[in-house]
Amino acid sequence: MTQADRVFSTPPTNTSARHSRRSILGAIAAGGAAAAIAAKPVPAIAASPADPIYEVIERHERAVAAHDNATDVRAHFDDINMNDEQKKQLAVLEDAADATYNHMEDAGVDLVNTKPATLAGILALCRYVEPLLNERDTINLPELIYWDDDTESSAAGALANVIAAAIDALIKDRAGKAIQS
Q1: What is the C-alpha to C-alpha distance for residues 162 and 113, in angstroms, rounded to an integer?
Q2: Residue 5 φ/ψ, nearest 5 degrees
Q3: Which residues contact 105 (CB under 8 A, 6 or more apart)?
Q4: Is residue 142 a contact partner of residue 2, using CB atoms and an 8 Å limit?
Q5: Does residue 15 belong to any structural domain of this protein?
């Protein structure tokens, strides 16, 4: 398969929830703090400068954390019997949730399209996506990947393809080095 050129994924529709009222400043402050935390590099996996997959995994982790935070802030906003100012505040929160969803979706497409360059990178990718693929109705990965050759696959199928391509490249590289020796 070739590189994906578009993605189809459906954002969650159950973002409305009734919780106690919070001020918009408190919600934005909470969102800003979590976004700052999410923007820090994630040291969970030892990165190799020769393998692009580590940066892609970290970008996806940050995007998921930012989206989770934005939807949590939105969910805690009481949207019952709102006045005009509260409706404006709600629109800001919903726009933020939509923006973080789009960023997370882009990061998910990169995740399933980036070929690891090392065996350690393949292992890191497999360990990272395994719990994501085990989640039911996850929005952390794209639903469908449309390839530029007019085929499509699930996130799991795209990941299997990119992992197979990475292993194939490593095998060919090792075979080439053995012939040169």
Answers
A1: 6
A2: -115, -10
A3: 7, 9, 142
A4: no
A5: no
Is residue 11 assigned to a domain? no
Between CA 59 and CA 110 the distance in angstroms is 9
Determine the structural domain holding residue 161 and report its residue range. 23-180
Distances (CA, A) of 129 to 4, 70, 95, 111, 161: 18, 22, 28, 9, 14
Residue 18 falls within a domain, yes or no? no
Quote the pTM value.
Answer: 0.67
User: Residue 150: left if φ>0, alpha if ψ -120 to 50, beta else—which one?
Assistant: left
* pLDDT tens readout for residues 67-126: 999 999 999 998 899 999 999 999 999 999 999 999 999 999 999 999 999 999 999 999
Which SS3 state, helix, strand or coil, does residue 10 take?
A: coil
